[in-house]
């Protein structure tokens, strides 16, 4: 019997803001600028962002700031 297809976990903009402890407008700006990967859902007038948990994990790993002084991607701008 084949392995079941893993179910993809998606987060809303509000959920991502809570997870990252950021203001929702900050997350919205990251999404609009394409800095945080996401998809818009809701048909022709799509208004709702959805972020896959895998994308969020990768983004967080790439944008971490080490409190001991090492710089991550976000500090190199």
Account of the protein in words:
The chain has helices at 13-20, 24-32, 53-62, and strands at residues 10-12, 39-41, 48-52. It has 77 residues and is an alpha+beta fold. The protein has one domain (10-65): Orthogonal Bundle (Arc Repressor Mutant, subunit A). Helix 1 packs across helix 2 (24-32).
Short description:
The protein is of the alpha+beta class and 77 residues long. The protein has helices at 13-20, 24-32, 53-62; strands at residues 10-12, 39-41, 48-52.
Which tags fit this structure?
77 residues; alpha+beta; Arc Repressor Mutant, subunit A; 3-stranded antiparallel sheet; 3 helices; 3 strands; 35% helix; 14% strand; flat
Helix/strand-derived category reads alpha+beta
Radius of gyration: 15 Å
Helix content: 25-40%
Q: What is the distance, rounded to the nearest whole angstrom, between the alpha carbons of the first and last residues? A: 50 Å
Strand residues, percent: 5-15%
Question: Count of helices?
Answer: 3
Largest sheet: 3 strands, antiparallel
Shape: flat
The level 1 CATH classification is Mainly Alpha
Spatial strand arrangement across the major sheet: 1-3-2
Topology:
Layout: E1 10-12, H1 13-20, H2 24-32, E2 39-41, E3 48-52, H3 53-62
Antiparallel strand pairs: 1-3, 2-3
